[in-house]
Design goal:
The complex is a heterodimer of chains A (336) and B (297).
Chain A: H1 5-12, H2 22-54, E1 64-75, E2 78-89, E3 93-97, H3 104-112, E4 119-124, E5 127-128, E6 136-139, H4 153-162, H5 173-185, H6 201-213, E7 219-222, H7 231-248, E8 251-256, E9 268-273, E10 276-280, H8 282-285, H9 288-295, E11 299-303, E12 308-312, H10 321-324
Parallel strand pairs in A: 3-8, 3-9, 6-7, 7-8
Antiparallel strand pairs in A: 1-2, 1-4, 4-5, 9-10, 11-12
Chain B: H1 2-8, H2 17-42, H3 46-65, H4 70-88, H5 92-116, H6 123-129, H7 140-166, H8 168-173, H9 178-200, H10 205-219, H11 223-247, H12 260-277, H13 280-283, H14 286-296
Helix pairs in contact in B: 2-7, 2-9, 2-10, 2-11, 3-4, 3-5, 3-6, 3-9, 3-10, 4-5, 4-9, 6-9, 7-9, 9-10, 10-11, 10-12, 11-12
Classes of the chains: A alpha/beta (336), B mainly alpha (297).
Amino acid sequence: MLPVTASLSLYKRNYYTLQEDHWHAMICIVIITLLCVTCIYQRSKGLEKVETMFMTTTLHSGDEILALQKVSVRFGQRTVLSEIDLSIRGGEFIGLIGPNGAGKSTLLKILLGLLSPSAGSVRVLGSAVRRGSAVIGYVPQKIHLDPGTPLTGRDLVGLGLDGHRFGFALGGRHRRERIDEALRSVDAIALAQSPVGRLSGGEQQRLLIAQALLTDPKILLLDEPLSNLDIKSAREVVRLVARISRERGVTVMLVAHDMNPLLDVMDRIVYLAHGHAAIGSVAAVVQSDVLSGLYGYPVEVLRTKNRILVVGGQDTELEDWNLAGEEHCDGGVTVS
Amino acid sequence: MTGFWRAIFAAGFFSNPEVQNALWLGGVIAVVSGAIGVFTVLRGQSFAGHAMSDMGAAGAAGALLAGGTAIAGFLSFSVVAGASVDLLGVRPRDRDVATGLVLTAVLGLGSLFLFFDTRIVGAPEIILFGSLFTSDPGLTPWLSALGAAVLLALAIVFRPLVFISLSPDTALARGVPVRAVGFAFMLLLALAVGESSLVVGSLLSTSLLIGPASAALRVTARLRHAIPIAAVLGLLATWLGILLAYDSFYWPPYGRGWPVSFFITGLVLAIHLLSRLWPPAARYGSTTAQRTARIGG
């Protein structure tokens, strides 16, 4: 007596027998073929990328690395960026400063090739921008890593090396060494085995910078890396980025809405407001008349011993750096 | 000793072809669901997965009405559902709303199919609660091949999938086709769900999908370990469930085996509850101890 007799009676009634199951075979074959094709295609693409990655660009510091000419971005009626001209040299540390909604993230998207400008030309290392280029390392804004994220520090950093590649992971010593080297360059080798979700904001930020460094980029774009950090961690991140920029000759563009933590490391400042930009030394750009020109209404620049405050002339659009600046009242910064 | 084993493995357990088929098919589906489930939990798409299985049920009802097989309906409707859910919503909120609306509309269609289908007694029960013992053995090779294809595809998209699940912005900047990879995962999820609906029924397939996966993610902090652990836990629940269902023939009321879905889903819940007892520190192994030591020292 079989225990399945009852259910077998259904089976015998033939509802589940298959007469023509060619389509099952079709599905399997189509899926497998598609996968093979994608796999092979991505492999060839992947190899090409590795070559670019290790290609030694003869680049002297001081050469123009980023060039924007009359770049404008419009979304419908709204102009986000209007006729931006920028020329940035190799190895420079640029602070991209401006109030919320000034177009800072939009500018980064253009440099990353995620957004085409409505007008103007963008050249990175003399050629047109390409999405996924290994020349640019990118740390996005406010990445949220859940405490339960099942990845270690090494896993997270490793995504920067081959996270975009399809196919089976070919591990090996070489990969491991490169990841370790990136971890060491951000002083995070001790975090290699730690689950990333359990790390502090500053530690996560360091790992993300290591991730961005893995392709050995010439340009490092950091979108608001200081926004969720306390003063001490923020200062550490700034010092770390400045050191990386110096040691590797990497051009850094660091986005922040408060310029004070960057005052002693920035080579030049790009100040964005209302879609207009000014570039130059802090002393030259952060002036009442220059900023008033950008904002289109009078703003006041106040210099105290170790920080700069920009105070809006109109209450409705008041820059509250006088409030934000309060947190960064940590001395050691001199303004020429 | 022999008596002990005979009490557990009731007479004919291993020699019964239906049971053999159920063990094999259940095993394949448990492994596939476990692996896909880890990403489903990670990406917060449990609801989408459940919705697909419900829509698969409507498809199965339609397929039976049209004189086809349930599995055809399960797979085709799950895939179509997965594709439409993915295409309708990008942001989590849109996705939930889109999923809910498509889901209910398709379920309405399913009720209509079942209303017209008067030839098959017990069709709703099979569709909703599963029919592992009655699955056609002729289908098993195809279902196994499909399962293997899903696992292969998952292995191929593994790294980009981790990347887009963790930080879509960076992945996009690095040139990962984020939408395409997300869509591919949705299709893999649909296929896994369609298959498991056949085993434990569409209402309960979510159990095999997210139960072992969530337990695995509680037990380990490594994604590469979570996938095999989820597969093994799913396998354990399925095989133990089949064994209990077989034995239950001799339980009251005598002569009627209890539904296998009951045992599998119950065991999955038990596994999940046990995993919640797992101490968080154990999950991170010696790492936490090392870090504490480093900070302390």
